[in-house]
Amino acid sequence: MNPVKKNRLAAFLLLAVLVFTTGMGKQVQGQELQAVSKVESEAEQKVKGIAPAKKIKRIRIGPHPKYTRLLLDFSGPVEYQVNANFVEKKIALIFNNTSITPKVQSRKYRDKNLAAIDVQSNEDQITLTLHLKNSNTRFFHHKEKAASQIVLDLKGTTEPFLKTNIGKKKGQKKKEEPIVKIKPVKMKGLSSEQVKEVILKDEEEKKETGWEEYQNALKLYQQKKLEDYTIKVESEPDPETGETEEIEQTKPGALKLFRKFAKDYPNSPLLPNILYLLAEAEFRITWRQKHPNYEKALAAYQHATRKFPKSRFSDHSLYKIGNIFEEIGYTLEARVLYNEGINRNQKSLYNTARKTSLANMLLKEKRYEDAYQAFQKILKKSPKSNEAQLAIIKIANEYFDQKDFIRALDIYNEAIRRWPSVVNKTPIIYSNMGEIYFKKRDYQKARKFYFNMVNMDPANKEAHRALNRIGDLYLIQGREMEALSVYDQSAKLDPENRESQYGKIRMADIGVRYPRLPVNDAVFDVNAYFQPLKAYDEILESAKDVDILSEVTMSKGIALLKEQNYLEAIQEFKKLLPLGEESKFYRDAAKYIRQSLVFLVDGYAKQGGVLPILYSYTDYASLSIGKVKSLKTLLQVGEAYQSLGMLPEAVRMYEKVKQLDARKIHNDRIFLNLGQIHYERGNYSEAEFVARSFLKNFPRSEKVRDAMKLLAKSLNGRKQHDDALKVYQNILEKFPKFPSEIHYLMATLEAGRNQNAQAIAAYEKTIDTFDRTQKITPDYLREAHYKLANSLYQEGKYAESIDAFDAAIKLFPDHPHRSWSEFISADALKKIKNNPKATAQLNQLIKSRPENDLIRKAAQSQLKVMEWEKENTNAL
């Protein structure tokens, strides 16, 4: 064979091996612990108080000059099993029927051989997992029965302990070899001169084809020196001292040499290799950039493909061009090129990659079911394709994010069944499955998967969230002490973490809802439990995100609601409304605001607080968070409008209640209120008709007494005073409790027809029969005191009227008629010839500057009259 052709063939083979051969790493399969047991939480152990006889007391680092030594102190006849998986850098020690002390916890190490120790508890089984720094690690273990210890020794290295050494061993001294004389090369059928001629011709062809330049560029490519690089060399000797120094010198990289070769040797048979290597180098340089621009790489691949379309490397270039189009978002072009490559060569090495890219494009386009089917086809031909397995798990995660929990759960269960090792390395699956079962209210399965998440990857931020979810499950199931224990553990894990704040919020919530739990301050941090409002305020000041801020605001509002501090509770809930209707916090806040309004209006209605009722209702209406559905609340708001004389608004509220009251529970109350409106408008006949109709149609109503009062007032309005008095007497006989108000109404009736003697007697009965244990003093009692004094004055009982005025002013100094009463009292003093006291009272009245200026002027005039009378009396 022609030597030049041999060299060409060697070059092609070398490039093919370099660019397109993928090495398969050795897979060392160690024994893996397949079953993931359900691990009881620390909370359950605290509550149950059950512990096995065998116990691991602590784990500590022991002394050793070469190895990393671990000492496990234990009590009892401990037995253990070892499962080593050096590929994954894990060694698991399994202890059955064994417990641990609080000192034995998962932790990380700064050690050359040991990265961390993971402690997992599953009922009475303890698993200690040693995470190694190197897969090539020597591991020795034995038990020291005398000291009740297990001794573990580790020593790792980055080089394999056993390997085939080809050539000279490391550190071996060179042996002197005997000089061997090289015999002249002989080729069958050629003389020595012909051989020399062939060699010389081969060397000339190498120079013409750029063989040496090709080898230099290829060597740099193999060393990954694609761009220009610098080396340190010695400078020229100094002319005076003769000394040299180390300087940096820039050398051209493989990319520059490829370009130079293509320019210098345009007709070389090695040019196809050079152009494809040039394109590959451009791609690798661009791919490493933070914001890659594939324009040069794409142009290089297209140039190589167009110039040498029949090259064995054209299939690779076609795949790379499609890959670049996919990277820059030209999905249509990429899909066309991938399909073209698959159809052109069904046995191409790149078809699996093409099909994977096509499936990933479907995934990016959110065509999840099509992507799922595409990856399943890939797994059918390549069952161990890790990329396809992870892609299917990613599809399940997308279904989970879209709240298609049924489909997500199906795929998760399939993944657990088919690829348990992949699932164990992706613990977020357990968190998502726990969440799905939590929403399905399958709390037992949910807790199992949350525990798996916590145990498989305790350092993961989702593990902390899963721990809080376990607490939520206990709280939902009514296991408050277990929930409190889990939340306490969560709050202590990382106080600066948002999940720790969540745990603290829930501890405070338990304190609000269940304040009488047997909480032990030796076990828990009890501050949040016993002082929930203080805990809420602390978290409000340092909330880590909007969700935590919303959670703590909601919890504080609920706590205030339970304390019946409705106004402040509503103010807290209103802070959550800007989150929008799609937010769970918005919906809950709207619900609690309505609930607070119902309680607030009912409380004010019982106290006669008309204005606060209307303020609260108007404030609620301004929030636009839905209509009030409580008929009782709407009725109370209508009555508040009626009390202020806003009769149209009151009638509108009554009509609304009547329409919504399908069971007609409030018909009697509405009917009577409408009769009261007739009375207030002066329609006494209609009011009387309503009252009589009420007594006839609702004889067992709680409002019968009010209906009889309306009847009596209506009769009084129609000047049928005797009939009205008879009705009042009937009320006193039928409802002997709380007679004070009826006596007052009878007094006003008598005063209205100038029967002062009877009016005085009725006013006195009003005052005498009033139940002074009532917390709220009604208006009619205030009026009774002042009107009694006026009636006595009108009857000429001045001394008694003076005492009555003094009592009224003393009991109710803020009454609007106080100034007038003081003036009349002064006049009564004058009537009984007590001028000095009358003068003093009038002067005091003038100094007090009454709101009614006429009373002040009248007092001044009265003083002048009294002075004039005094002067005239002295003159006489």
Distance between the termini: 168 Å
Morphology: elongated
The number of helical elements comes to: 38
CATH architecture of the domain at 42-156: Sandwich
What is the average per-residue confidence, as pLDDT, rounded to a whole number?
Answer: 85
User: Strand order within the widest sheet?
Assistant: 5-1-2-10-9
Find the structural class using helix and strand composition. alpha+beta
Q: How would you characterize the largest beta sheet?
A: 5 strands, mixed
Give the SSE layout.
Blueprint: H1 3-20, H2 42-48, E1 54-62, E2 68-75, E3 80-85, E4 90-95, E5 98-100, E6 107-108, E7 114-122, E8 125-132, E9 137-144, E10 149-156, H3 192-209, H4 211-222, E11 229-234, E12 246-251, H5 254-264, H6 271-287, H7 295-307, H8 314-327, H9 331-344, H10 351-364, H11 368-381, H12 386-401, H13 405-418, H14 420-424, H15 428-439, H16 443-456, H17 461-476, H18 480-493, H19 498-513, H20 527-530, H21 532-542, H22 546-562, H23 566-574, H24 584-607, H25 610-623, H26 631-643, H27 647-660, H28 667-680, H29 684-697, H30 704-717, H31 721-734, H32 740-752, H33 756-768, H34 779-794, H35 798-811, H36 818-831, H37 835-847, H38 853-875
Parallel strand pairs: 1-5
Antiparallel strand pairs: 1-2, 2-10, 3-4, 4-8, 6-7, 7-8, 9-10, 11-12
Helix pairs in contact: 2-18, 4-5, 5-6, 6-7, 7-8, 8-9, 9-10, 10-11, 11-12, 12-13, 15-16, 15-17, 16-17, 17-18, 17-19, 18-19, 19-21, 19-22, 21-22, 22-23, 22-24, 23-24, 24-25, 24-26, 25-26, 26-27, 27-28, 28-29, 28-30, 29-30, 30-31, 31-32, 32-33, 32-34, 33-34, 34-35, 34-36, 35-36, 36-37, 37-38
